[in-house]
Write a structure and sequence with these properties.
The chain has 399 residues and is an alpha/beta fold. It has three domains: 218 residues, Rossmann fold; 68 residues, no CATH class; 76 residues, Structural Genomics Hypothetical 15.5 Kd Protein In mrcA-pckA Intergenic Region, Chain A, CATH 3.10.290.10. It is 45% helix and 15% strand. The protein contains 17 helices and 13 strands. The strands form three sheets. Strands 1-6-5-2-3-4 form a six-stranded mixed beta sheet, sandwiched between helices. It has a five-stranded mixed beta sheet with strand order 7-13-12-9-10, with no helix packed on it. Helix 10 links the parallel strand 5 and strand 6.
Length: 399
């Protein structure tokens, strides 16, 4: 096999879960190399939230490697499909977003993808472009190209149908609408997570209906979120945004379980995993956190965040960038102060933390010398007083 072709196929298949059909992928890759014609590599995101998280970057990193080999990414921003919401893997109905929310989210998605993708080899298309002027007759023709029986083969649809949970007609046609994007952008290969497999196959079928060469599909593993169980998701709150504050990004990565850590290394970095598995898990996790923060900021910033993390959690010292709040008196109510400073979302949360023994007075800047407090009334000396809230939050109150 030609060296260039071999490298292309190896890059596409690395870490992939499904390649369907492999014969089509090989044929398209061989034709691309022979004719020196870039492959059109489709990926789509519905802007249902503001941020791209590390789960999205599994696909984006794969595509960047293929861009570096000369191929073209077609990034479909689903500003039309976001009004429906992708039902893949869901057992409940999605909330409906406004046009304004979708537009704002779409802009952040576009900006953030270029932290990874090469803008010169990326074509961005909002799928509302071809749907807003589609005639009703054309839409009905699209619907007639697929049967309800095949749509209900999807596990998530059939489960909701059997359990008599809401399942709208819009959700039922979502796979067709996403699949039609492949027709309109003439995709050679479409990439998605394993939960997207059904939708990607629909796109392949529709291309055949519209007399196009059907796309090959490549699915990639789903990145597990910070809870170690569910897929990384904004709605589940178990995500790390690519625009996360570097301190928070480092801390969240350090909270990943030792077992899940190796998937993060495999899917989010180029590190030598066998070598890292020989060292202590904590040292490996520090290396993971530093590596990923470096990708989105710089090695210098990552190094500073590592030092800060070790200062707080290994040396048990308070952070050097300690939040300082002026109280205006020598006595205060800790519940009101924590809510006002933002370290608690509300007075109720602050009161709950106090009752749980999660608020402690830190003496001499050393977390080992901390005293759990149970009274809401605190005295504030002229030099100030430091409180630890939960495991990671600190504040210095001054009169």
């Amino acid at each position: 096999m030609d060296k260039e072709l071999s490298k292309l196929i190896e890059t596409i298949k690395r870490d992939a879960v499904d390649v369907i059909p492999e014969s089509s992928l090989l044929e398209k890759a061989a034709c691309s190399v022979k004719e020196n014609k870039p492959l059109r590599l489709k990926i789509g995101f519905d802007p249902t939230a503001k941020d791209i998280h590390l789960g999205h970057t599994v696909l984006l990193r794969k595509l960047r490697k293929l861009q570096d080999l000369g191929h073209q990414v077609v990034l479909i921003i689903g500003d039309f499909t976001a009004k429906i919401g992708d039902p893949s893997g869901r057992t409940v109905l999605r909330p409906v977003l406004t046009d304004s929310q979708i537009a704002q989210n779409a802009q952040t998605y576009t900006d953030q993808t270029f932290k990874i993708l090469d803008i010169k080899r990326t074509e961005i298309i909002n799928n509302s472009v071809w749907y807003k002027d589609m005639a009703v007759s054309d839409f009905l023709s699209l619907l007639s190209s697929y049967t309800l029986a095949r749509i209900l083969e999807r596990d998530d649809f059939s489960q909701r149908f059997k359990e008599k949970k809401p399942l709208t007609m819009l959700e039922l046609v979502y796979p067709l609408i996403q699949g039609y994007d492949s027709v309109m952008c003439k995709a050679d290969i479409e990439f998605g997570g394993t939960d997207q497999k059904f939708n990607l196959l629909v796109g392949r079928t529709l291309q055949e209906v519209f007399h196009q060469p059907p796309q090959a599909i490549v699915t990639m593993p789903i990145l597990v979120g910070l809870d170690g169980v569910n897929k990384m998701s904004k709605s589940l709150g178990n995500y790390i945004s690519v625009t996360e504050d570097p301190k928070d990004m480092f801390g969240k990565l350090m909270s990943v379980s030792d077992e899940v850590m190796w998937d993060y290394f495999r899917l989010l970095t180029e590190e030598d995993i066998p070598s890292l598995q020989k060292i202590h898990p904590k040292a490996a996790k520090l290396h993971l956190s530093k590596t990923i923060v470096s990708q989105y900021y710089s090695p210098e910033v990552a190094g500073l965040k590592q030092q800060e993390f070790e200062r707080v959690f290994s040396e048990r010292k308070v952070p050097s960038d300690l939040l300082e709040v002026r109280v205006g008196s020598e006595q205060g109510d800790i519940v009101e102060l924590l809510a006002k400073s933002g370290l608690a979302a509300s007075k109720n949360e602050a009161r709950r933390l106090l009752n749980q023994g999660s608020i402690s007075l830190v003496e001499s800047g050393d977390c080992l010398n901390s005293i759990i407090i149970d009274s809401p009334v605190i005295n504030i000396p002229s030099q100030g007083v430091i409180f630890k809230v939960g495991k990671k939050r600190f504040v210095r109150f001054k009169p």
